[in-house]
């Protein structure tokens, strides 16, 4: 089975939070808790560059890669599938649209450290930032969405996730195939 790193396309909407307090509150959330934040959904424009319009997506990008965001349609589609692999937080934006933050809680020790390209490895936390991931072969059929223990960032998905995403006609994400050894 193929494994992919989940990535966002640049020309789709991005969610930014306005202040650091919201990041701290987000980190402290408990499962299924509702969080009304002071940020806003940047429909039509990125907060970074107001000259380039952003396309709408069911999966807005978020500047913190510990979370994977989805709007109501995507949540309805993926909620039951993803529930065994992490926790959801319902967030209401200023325009009262529900956005669901999903945080994968399952981390597997399957990163091939020798063949992966790791930036800024922290030996105390035994983690680093991945430039290129290479994974050890395992039974990926059961790993719909996950992270690896040795990395702070990327989220990985299996072929079944990609198939559901494409079948539903969602846009805004792309899937970079990962080398398996």
Summarize the topology.
Elements: E1 3-8, E2 14-16, H1 20-27, E3 34-36, E4 40-41, E5 61-62, E6 68-71, H2 72-82, E7 86-92, E8 98-104, E9 107-108, E10 117-122, E11 127-132, E12 134-135, E13 145-148, E14 156-158, H3 159-167, E15 173-177, E16 179-180
Parallel strand pairs: 2-5, 3-7, 9-13, 12-16
Antiparallel strand pairs: 1-14, 1-15, 2-4, 6-8, 7-8, 10-11, 13-14
Overview features:
181 residues; alpha/beta; five-stranded mixed β-sheet; 3 helices
Description:
- The chain is an alpha/beta fold.
- The strands form five sheets. The chain has a five-stranded mixed sheet with strand order 9-13-14-1-15. The protein has a four-stranded mixed sheet with strand order 3-7-8-6, with helices on one face.
- The radius of gyration is 16 Å and the shape is globular.
- The chain has three helices and 16 strands.
- A hairpin with a 7-residue loop joins strand 13 and strand 14.
- The two termini are 12 Å apart.
What's the gist of this structure?
This protein has 181 residues and is an alpha/beta fold. The protein contains 3 helices and 16 strands.
């Amino acid at each position: 089975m193929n494994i992919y790193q989940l990535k966002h396309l640049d020309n789709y909407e991005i969610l930014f939070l306005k202040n650091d307090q919201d990041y701290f509150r987000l980190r402290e959330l408990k499962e299924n808790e509702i969080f009304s934040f002071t940020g806003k959904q940047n429909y039509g424009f990125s907060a970074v560059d107001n000259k380039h319009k952003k396309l709408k997506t069911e999966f807005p990008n978020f500047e913190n890669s510990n979370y994977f965001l989805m709007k109501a349609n995507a949540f309805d589609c993926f909620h039951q599938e993803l529930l065994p692999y992490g926790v959801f937080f319902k967030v209401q934006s200023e325009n009262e649209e529900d956005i669901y933050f999903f945080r994968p809680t399952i981390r597997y020790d399957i990163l091939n450290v020798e063949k992966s390209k790791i930036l800024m490895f922290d030996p105390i936390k035994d983690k680093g930032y991945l430039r290129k991931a290479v994974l050890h072969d395992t039974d990926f059929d059961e790993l719909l969405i996950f992270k690896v223990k040795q990395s702070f960032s990327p989220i990985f998905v299996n072929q079944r996730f990609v198939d559901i995403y494409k079948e539903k006609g969602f846009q805004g994400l792309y899937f970079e195939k990962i080398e398996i050894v």
